[in-house]
Amino acid sequence: MINTKRTHWSEFAIEALIRTLGFSTVGFVLLILVFLLREGVPIFFEAQPSNVLGARWYPTFGLFGTLPLILGSALVTLTAIVIALPLGVATAVFVREVAPNWAREVLKPMIEVLAGIPSVVLGFLGMTLVAPLVRTTLGVPTGLTAFTGALLLAYMALPTIISVAEDALDAVPRGYRDAGLAMGATHWQTIWRVVVPAARSGILTAVMLGMGRAIGETMAVLMVTGNAARMPLGLDAFFRPVRTMTATIATEMGEVAQGSTHYHALFGIGIILFVLTIVINLVAARTMFEKRRRGGLR
Amino acid sequence: MNSDHPSRGNLILLVFLLLATPMAGCARPTAAAREERRATTRSIENKGSDTLVNLALAWAEAYMQAHSDIRISVTGGGSGTGIAAMINGTTDIANASREMKPEEVSAAEANGIFPQQFVVARDAIAVVINPSNPVDRLTMQQVSDVYTGKISNWRQVGGEDRPIVLLSRESNSGTYVYFLENVIRLGQKDSQSLFSPDTLLMPSSEGISTEVRQNPNTLGYDGLGYVTADQKMVAIARDENSPYVLPSAGTVNDGSYPISRPLYMYTAGKPSGPIKAYLDWVLGEGQAMVTALGFVPLK
């Protein structure tokens, strides 16, 4: 009797705890959203729309043009994905389909370690090693460019892309591979024409999650992109400095007086960033659900 | 089964008590402990300008050695950060490399705080380039034109045919505001000149020195105390007819170097007790340490 009572008690306590934690997570997200909107929405009333969507970010002098920041973030993130996608998918294919068992045992934990490197360490490496290399090999005025930032971001998005893409490849039934090989296709043809297309939606999810990681990254980008709020237009924009939304919030939040227009503008950028991240995550979630509906295959 | 129901009621009570006890337990002793700590060792919070942080640290260390009952903690973050902390009441002394802006003063007064200003040392801003760059002198007008983007090649100021890469501190740095007002705008209040959008805003002095060291195209500026031996300082002239002067303690004190400024400490209201004693020491004995850190003492 006592024993069952104790089980009942602890079970109830654990259940209550888990439920509280679960609901509080949802609650926190909602509170963050409410706070973000409360602090950020005023900027859209305090400054003219033409100012907020202008090309000049100079908050100390009342210029709140977010366009260069949005384009800067977009340029760095998209370039990073273009670099990381082929590398990440190729690595996932290698780890899952080609590598012998012992190599897989070594590679998987190493990829996980890659995900654990603090971004400030990567930023420091980028500043002292990658930036001079970019400058001397490409002959650009400075090595602190959008391209340098994209290289580091690609490196940081890789672990996410590799592990999610690998899971997607893993979900492709063995029968597909056997059928491909039985039809006389080579190992490579089976991988490229059968397995990878079958895992397509999972790979897309991997890219989306990697992009979500990249767009929100702050420290490494802050240290290597040069933080010049110029409009990244023209072909040379890759090899010129840019300023991202995250870097702007991180560097300027410490100085602003609470409740000032500049303060609201920074939260306004936060809202833009939040919306972008939500959209990316929703797209990722959609492809993921689609995959589940179709039994992991397309 | 019936016997289970009361146990559930007890359990809810227990969970509630478990959650409530530590909270109640925390709140009271901390306040008491804080009170007690205040009585035995007095602590002074000192926060703000990254330009001043090394000097403030040196002062704090020397002062704490002589006064074992005082604890001074010094943190950087930028002048704006320090002043904001003073306004919000989270620091006792704010270090600043610029004067408080009118809106900061009014924000403080809205909080019931009347900031007191103390000039604690002088600083010169050095214009720095890579040592391999042959340029060694610029006028204030030239520096201004370069930073606003009117001049974009070193050839235009007597150097090699290379693009100029502009470096600046972040806009929360007091050095940034001073440089904008006194160099880029040449001290003209009505000037609307701004940093060129191509200017790279570096998050720290370290960021500037790293880039200047590596890149022969760069032009940067930083506090004289932060210029390392591997950066080259440029001699500056007020205008074309004035002499070109390199920054040093001597040229700052005699006023011949054009880009120099006072450094400030702000307190929330008239200082008293240990804070006043500390500031008196800084303005007196503490001045002897200023030169060793690359700044210029008050007389």
Largest interface pair: A-B, 41 and 38 residues
Briefly note the structural class of the backbone of chain A: mainly alpha
Number-wise, the strands of chain A total 2
User: How would you classify the quaternary structure?
Assistant: heterodimer
Strand content of chain A: under 5%
As a percent range, the share of helical residues of chain B equals: 25-40%
Structural classification of chain B: alpha/beta
Low-confidence stretches of chain A: none
Mean pLDDT of chain A: 87
- Shape field of chain A: globular
C-alpha Rg of chain A (nearest Å)? 23 Å
Number of helices of chain A: 13
Q: Key features?
A:
heterodimer, A: about 300 residues, mainly alpha, two-stranded antiparallel sheet, about 75% helix, globular, B: about 300 residues, alpha/beta, 9 helices, disordered N terminus
3D architecture notes:
The complex is a heterodimer of chains A (298) and B (299). Chain A is an all-alpha fold and 298 residues long. Chain A has helices at residues 2-40, 43-46, 49-52, 67-98, 101-116, 119-138, 146-170, 174-182, 187-198, 200-216, 219-224, 245-252, 261-293; strands at residues 57-58, 63-64. Chain A is 76% helix and 1% strand. In chain B, strands 1, 2, 3, 4, 6, 7, 8, 9 and 11 form a nine-stranded mixed β-sheet that branches. Chain A binds chain B through residues 1, 5, 8-9, 12-13, 16, 56, 58-61, 68, 127-128, 131-132, 135, 141-144, 222-223, 226-231, 240-241, 243, 251-252, 254-258, 260, and chain B through 3-4, 7-8, 11, 15, 77-78, 80-81, 84, 87, 103-104, 107, 162-165, 170-172, 177, 194, 197-203, 207, 210-211, 214-215, 217-218.
Summarize the structure.
Chain A is built from 13 helices and two strands.
What is the secondary structure topology, with strand pairs?
The complex is a heterodimer of chains A (298) and B (299).
Chain A: H1 2-40, H2 43-46, H3 49-52, E1 57-58, E2 63-64, H4 67-98, H5 101-116, H6 119-138, H7 146-170, H8 174-182, H9 187-198, H10 200-216, H11 219-224, H12 245-252, H13 261-293
Antiparallel strand pairs in A: 1-2
Helix pairs in contact in A: 1-13, 4-7, 4-10, 5-7, 6-7, 7-10, 8-9, 10-13, 12-13
Chain B: H1 4-40, E1 42-48, H2 53-66, E2 70-75, H3 79-87, E3 93-96, H4 102-110, E4 115-129, E5 137-139, H5 140-148, E6 165-169, H6 174-184, E7 200-202, H7 205-214, E8 218-223, E9 232-233, E10 235-237, H8 249-253, E11 260-268, H9 273-283
